[in-house]
Amino acid sequence: MPRMSRVLVLLLVTMLAGGCRAGRGDLNGSPFAPTGLVSLPGAFEPGETIQTWADALRPLEGVYVRDDGGFRYVLVAMGERPTGGYRVDLNDAMEAEDYVLLEVVYRAPGPGDMVTQALTYPYLLLRVKTEKDIRVNRLNERGEPSGLPLHEDGSAVEAGPIVIESPVPFEGIGTTVRLRGRVKTDLPVYACLEDGHYQLLEATRLDLSAAGDGWWRFDQEFTLRGASSPSGMLEIWFGDGPGRATALVPLCLMEWSYANK
Questions:
Q1: Is 104 helix (H, G, I), strand (E, B) or coil?
Q2: Whole-number Å distance between alpha carbons of 100 and 115
């Protein structure tokens, strides 16, 4: 294992929990505040593109990484919580030879805490000045690390005989989405897209054209019905039973409203 050293690059950190932007004093005793290794500016602005990306993903628990403007943006999303008072804290950061390791802790409200009685989506947004891989560990109550699913933008989904080139995972889409890729089968191929409340937004049989070596290409556009959540899942599949092949692409739905539920 590579020898760890403290992070020498500057991390620009902002914490947003329950819809509120955190200032310098909001990490509640984080060891980073006095060290100078991490800057916690109260006026940190991620920009419209990154903020829209973060807002769309925060209902989905996990770690998301996106490159923009020479930085690596790391979003640690806690997912949906039943009340206010939840937050994600940065506990530590270390740099190895080929990656940066971030340790985070989930915090929950205490038994007697006064909290907002509404659903919240706490998250932590980090801006890391590095080109190295990002790894994130979540520490449990005993201080033991447990992994969180990490997703990086921009990669095609390859699931054996199904390759989805567009849309890519966690891409933001509006009321239309272009499906592009290839499959290796002689069976009919289908696609559907659901929102986070399992409402069907569109379903169709894909039109295929021969691509050689047993592969068939698809390239067509979906028009979506009204979404009721900011998250969605595209599924492309063929076959039934044990022989069924499927590929999944999680997406950010930019045009949605609870009124559509």
A1: strand
A2: 34
What Cα–Cα distance (Å) separates residue 205 from each residue in 154, 189, 237?
Answer: 25, 6, 10
Side-chain-side CA neighbours of residue 227 (13 Å): 23
pTM as predicted: 0.56
Helical segments of the chain, H only? 48-57
Q: How far is CA 177 from the centre of its chain?
A: 19
Closest CA to 124 of 78, 57, 170, 172: 78
The structural domains of the chain, ordered by start, are 5-152 (no CATH), 157-260 (2.60.40.10)
The rounded distance, in Å, linking the Cα atoms of 58 and 74 is 12
Over the stretch 61-120, which tens digit does the pLDDT of each residue have?
Answer: 888 888 888 788 888 888 888 999 999 888 888 877 888 788 888 989 988 999 999 989
CB 206 within 8 A of CB 216: no
The token pair that represents 140 in the structure block = 């449990």
